[in-house]
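Table S2 (text version). Query chain:
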Amino acid sequence: MSSIRLPLVAGALAAAWLSSSCGGDEPSEPTGIIQGSYATDINDQGQVVGYVATATGRIAFLWTSAAGMTALPSLGGMSWNVASGINARGQVVGSSETGTVVHAFIWTAAAGMTDLGTLGGTTSSAEDINYGGRVVGSARTTADKLHAFVWTAGGGMTDLGTLGGTRSRAHGVNGTGEVVGESETASGESHAFLWTPQGGMTDLGTLGGEFSRALDMNDLGQIAGWGESASGPHACVWAVGGATTDLGTLGGASSFASGINEAGQVVGRSRTASGDLHAFLWTAAGGMADLGTLGGTLSDASAINELGQVVGTSTTAAGERRAFLWTASGGMIDLGMLSGSKSATRGIDSPE
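Corresponding structure-token output:
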């Protein structure tokens, strides 16, 4: 699973969606078009989803080793189409422009695109899907508040509420239907949460600061994300009913975890001692390992599957942003671009 971080702002639709995010997010890049390809998730069959950013918008893609990168359809619009999650059955979720607004979608090879609707408001975005087809994300309510949701084919979209504030976002769902994300609290802070069908939404706390975010969860109850500590934001793992583990950094001041598999392997990004931002793989036995780059100075790991395959985005030696697939045996490979799309960069800074 991967929670999509949106490193480029492409028009009014994008700006409106980004402005609705909960507070306490990691710092974002300056507004500007940063073209390239971005991998957001990978399933256990090695299928990768993400999007290509062009000068005019975003195009969702599905990548396989056999066919390479192919474009997915949209809900009717052309400027915003992002794939953010894929399950083992090949079902893809994300957000797509309908023509005037952005809505969450689910795509299958057999049925094509399905609009998941909203919570009564104008916009929605899906971020993850489990094997059973349960989808999570965030949507506008009739009161124009952004709330986390869970969607099922039989029950439609359900509002998960908040931790006492006005906004929440769901980023990940595990095989048992437990959901993680972040929510505004009654005091205005943004805290990571765990939601269960039995217990509702629970505050996971922070590493001592005001903010935290939960992005992924495995079936063992381990939750990957980050929390604000005394020395800055650090990647961490919450254990349901247990302790919270600070994963440290690659030598720099900050780190952010994005994904976790059933083996407890965690991926994300961290500042190095030299100040560069690099993708990492963390294990309980080996700690945090630098996955390197595609020749540039920046990389960011978004998701990891049960085979230990990692996907994300990196800059190349030429300064281009490209989706990557990393394996222990083969290292980091460039997944390329969609045929006919041009890869260029402008205004590159950290994707934190």
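Notes on Table S2: The CA atoms of residues 54 and 97 lie 15 Å apart. Residues 3-32, 342-352 have pLDDT under 50 and may be disordered.
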